[in-house]
Design a protein that fits this description.
Blueprint (H helix, E strand, L loop, with lengths): L8 E5 L12 H13 L4 E4 L11 H13 L7 E4 L5 H13 L4 E4 L11 H15 L6 E5 L1 H4 L5 H11 L3 E6 L4 H10 L4 E4 L5 H7 L3 E4 L6 H9 L3 H5 L2 H11 L4 H13 L16 H15 L5
Parallel strand pairs: 1-2, 1-8, 2-3, 3-4, 4-5, 5-6, 6-7, 7-8
Helix pairs in contact: 2-3, 3-4, 4-6, 11-13, 12-13
Length: 304
C-alpha cells in the first residue's frame, strides 16, 4: 500500500527515542515506525505532542525526517508536525517536510501570549506560515489542542482558512476531547480530513464521517486500534472501547510520555527508549514496574 487510505485511518503519533545528548535517535525511531506499520498503523506522525517535537532543533528534525525516508518509510504515509515557537522555525519545518513529499504537515498555534489570542490572531498565524511556505503542494492539518496551546482552532478560523487557501488546508486534528466540537467540524467541513486524537471517540467519529485517528495510544496498542477501526459496525467498534479506556487509565497514572516510553522500552527490549527530554523525567522504578505489570496483563488479551 502507498499513501494513506480514504477512511478508517490509524496513525500513530509516534514517541521519539533520544540519545544521552537528548537528540533524536534515528535508528531506534525508524525501527519503531516499521514495527507500528507492521502492526496495522496506516501512517506515522513525527514530532507531534507525544513525540516531544518542540524540544528538538529544526536541523535535527529535518535530518531525522530525511533519515527515515531514506530508510524506506514512504513519505506519503507520514504527517510531520511543524510545531515550534518561532515563525521562521515553523516555516522552515513545514517547507522542508513538504519538499520531502509527506502526506501533510500538522501545525498547532504556539503556546505564547495565549491569553491575548483570538480568532483573528489564530487566522493570521496560520496565514503567515502558509504564505511564507508559498507552495501549492503544502497540505496543512490544523491542530486543535487547547489544553496544550491555550489557543483553540475554532470553526470560524477553519472556515476562513479553507475559503482563502483551498486544498492547502487538508484537514483538522482534534485533540480537544470534546466530541461535540468534533461533530460540529465534521458537519461544517465535509471536504476536510478530520482526525480525532481521542482514542475512545474513534467509533463515534468514524460513524460521523471522520477519516480516522492520529493518537498517542497507537504507540502501544496499534493492533487494538486497528481492530477497533476495522470493525464492521458501530456496536462492534464500541466493544473495544473498554479495553482502550483501561489502557488509558493505566498510562495516565503518571506523565503520559514517560509512561508510553516505558512500555515501548519493554516491548522493544531497548532501555534507551525510557529516556525523555528535560524538563520531563523517567518514571520512578516502582511506578514503572507497576505500570508494566498492569499493562502486560491487559495486553495479553489484545488482538495479535
Amino acid at each position: 500500500m502507498t499513501g494513506l487510505p480514504a477512511r478508517n485511518v490509524v496513525i500513530a503519533a509516534v514517541a521519539t527515542p533520544v540519545g544521552p545528548d537528548y537528540r533524536p535517535d534515528g535508528e531506534l525511531l525508524l525501527a519503531r515506525c516499521r514495527q507500528l506499520l507492521a502492526e496495522g498503523c496506516d501512517g506515522i506522525t513525527l514530532f507531534g505532542t507525544t513525540g516531544e517535537g518542540a524540544e528538538f532543533s529544526v536541523a535535527d528534525r529535518q535530518q531525522i525526517l530525511e533519515q527515515v525516508i531514506f530508510g524506506g518509510l514512504d513519505p506519503r504515509r507520514l504527517i510531520v508536525s511543524a510545531g515550534a515557537l518561532t515563525l521562521p522555525d515553523m516555516t522552515a519545518l513545514a517547507a522542508h517536510a513538504t519538499e520531502q513529499g509527506v502526506a501533510g504537515v500538522l501545525l498547532m498555534p504556539p503556546c505564547m501570549y495565549r491569553g491575548g489570542i483570538g480568532d483573528d490572531g489564530t487566522f493570521r498565524f496560520y496565514a503567515t506560515v502558509i504564505d511564507r511556505v508559498a507552495s501549492d503542494a503544502l497540505r496543512l492539518y490544523l491542530y486543535h489542542f487547547p489544553d496544550i496551546s491555550g489557543v483553540p482552532v475554532t470553526t470560524r478560523v477553519i472556515r476562513r482558512l479553507s475559503e482563502k487557501y483551498g486544498p492547502v488546508i487538508a484537514g483538522v486534528k482534534d485533540s480537544g476531547g470534546d466530541f461535540g466540537f468534533t461533530e460540529d467540524v465534521l458537519r461544517r467541513f465535509s471536504h476536510l480530513a478530520v482526525y480525532t486524537g481521542s482514542e475512545t471517540h474513534v467509533p463515534s467519529a468514524l460513524a460521523a464521517g471522520a477519516r480516522g485517528t492520529i493518537c498517542g495510544l497507537a504507540n502501544v496498542i496499534a493492533r487494538l486500534m486497528r481492530a477497533m477501526s476495522d470493525a464492521p459496525t458501530l456496536p462492534d467498534r464500541w466493544r473495544y472501547v473498554p479495553s482502550v479506556q483501561a489502557v488509558d487509565s493505566i498510562l495516565s497514572r503518571g506523565p503520559f510520555i514517560p509512561s508510553i516510553k516505558a512500555v515501548i522500552a519493554e516491548a522493544m527490549q531497548q532501555p534507551a527508549w525510557r529516556r525523555v527530554v528535560p524538563p520531563m523525567a523517567e518514571l520512578p522504578l516502582f511506578d514503572e514496574n507497576r505500570l508494566l505489570t498492569d499493562f502486560g496483563k491487559l495486553a495479553a488479551a489484545f488482538p495479535r
